[in-house]
Request: fold
Amino acid sequence: MNLQKIDRRWIFLFMLVGVMLPLIFPIGFKIEVMPNTKAVYDLIDSAKPGDRILMSFDFDPGSGPELSPVATAITRHAIEKDLKIVYLALWPMGVNLGNLIYEKEKDNLIWGENFINLGYIAGGLVAIQSMGRNFTEVFPTDANGNSIHNFPILKDVKNFSDFAFVVSISAGTPGIKEWIMSAGDKYGLPVTGGTTAVSTPGFLPYVNTGQLHGIIGGLKQAAEYEMLIGQPGTATSGMDAQSIAHIIIIIFIIIGNIAWYRNRKQQKEAKK
Amino acid sequence: MTEFWTQFGIWIGALCTLAIWSFLYKDNPFYKIAEQIFVGISAAYWFVYTIYNILIPNFFEKIFTDFSANWLLLIPGVLGMMMVLRIFPKLDFLGKYPLALMVGTTAGLGIIMYLKTDVLSQVVSAMVNPFTGGTVLAVLGAFILIVGTLSGLVYFFFSKKHEGFTGGVARLGIIFLMISFGASFGYTAMARISLLIGRLQFLLGDWLGILGN
Amino acid sequence: MNYKLPLVITFCAGLLMILAEFIPHRPFGSISANIEIWFLIITGFAIILGQISLLKMNIIKVVYKLPNWKYHLATIISFSVMFLVGILYGMQKQPGLLGHGEWLSSALGDKPFDYIFANIYQHLMAAMFSILAFYIASAAYRAFIARTLDSTLLLSVSIIVMLGNTSFGTSLTAGLPQAIKFLHLPNLSSFIMDFPNTAGQRAILIGAGIGIIGSSLRIILGIERSWLGGK
Reply:
């Protein structure tokens, strides 16, 4: 049997079953918190009650399973610390994803007092630059079209100096990089956040320079954050499946290599 | 009634997921329809949000409620309309002017921002005394950071042929880049699997109800 | 002639943004602040252009019955439905042209726009991206071969990082003695990510950053004109 020519649909099926089973029958592997996740937690934990924070939803449902748990965990932590949370979105779909979290947490949130969703703003880097000069000019209304001057949460807000830090939950451009470039490097607002695991390695140089205060990279680190705040959620429940899926991929790599070497050996022997 | 529509929504969501996944078996009409519905809804979502979240509050409302303070906004309004007129091939040239403003603004900002964030800050961070780390691992790590960054940069420097000493350093750069790409693959696998987990949590939990909370 | 004015506009806008960074006072600071707000508004119109253009292409395919035109009809219908419910009844607490459409939202439990987002769009998009998990497994099987030293290195690092980023990896080496605790998979993975990976990524960042600065300069100076549709 030529393992290299195996129908890829068998691989798909194997993967599907491999991820499905640990979800149905949880194993309960241990989760260890990594320093980058702890750095994000520490920044939020160090904020004083009543501090205003920005949370930017720079992702869409395509990355929702990875990033919504991050946004939810950070929102819960901010609620616990009695912070004032200002949601906005550099991606249009981010507005609704933010609202879905608000709907779940609204028992602890009062729109306009300790929470507001300002909605979507186009322009990425230029928009952030503009917020740094005059925040209310960029967001004259909240996501529901009401003037922001009606809400106590944004009373006296002029620019980034009226916020403690920004948390960007980002799946690409515009996203956390633009926040670092403008809000962080130009206006001095501390930047932290979460990204999809795909882009995490590319952001570590910013963590090393201190331009980014830690990073939550994907579902595994979202689970670490859930553990830190003591509220296990969808990220934690997906960790066993994640582990098994990684093992399956590693097994695939090993079998693929064995098949390749065996094939090459056979080809060499055939030539002789 | 609401309960019915909630359940109906879950079923529709499940069927949409299965229609997309059917592509894994082979291309088929269910996948194609789901794909096109996705494109249509996505475009309309952007359209509606742009009108309600950007154009009305930032442009129309300001112009109509306080014209004397905001008359300057007529300039981007006109430029914006010129942009939209590109839809007619004969008026395509009009779109070049607003585009010029956007390209110029982005390029100007880009120079400053990338210079500061990606070049200067990163270069400064590579200029550290590696012996201040405290532990052996920290010192080793600092050395790796310096050597890896420099050799990686030499690899990207194509004005000098990669031979002799330069070639050796560039080769070391490739090794560091390979480590970065390997790490990226590991994280990519993790990301993709997370998305599959999210889908299965919906199908097995919300739809079939066989997952515990 | 056709290109001259756009090139002048690009030059002035680019130069102004650079000057405003170094001289944030009048007139540069206030002009660049205005341009930034203009940028947002023009971007809004540009998004509208993109969506109209997409709709136009689909209508052409259906009207002229080009191959697969029936599927493009689905695009037009889904676009129209989402657009109409959004414009007429708004989203969340934002009213539309006909108000909030209470008669619909009381039945659906949500406004129709939000209902479609939550129950169709969200699932379609998440499912679309989730199929990549299957393809990455297939790619790992077929393409991840240790042919050379470089590919072996890439492969080994990815395996360590994958194991280090799972609870299974954590359990696997949890019992290591303190003296060799750095070999504990999450620690090893963390070391790789924080040092060799960061070094490689930093080289890429600096290289790409210089590249972007170079091309931005070419655009501002009018050397790079491909965005105008020229050569």
Observations:
- DSSP finds seven helices and no strands in chain B.
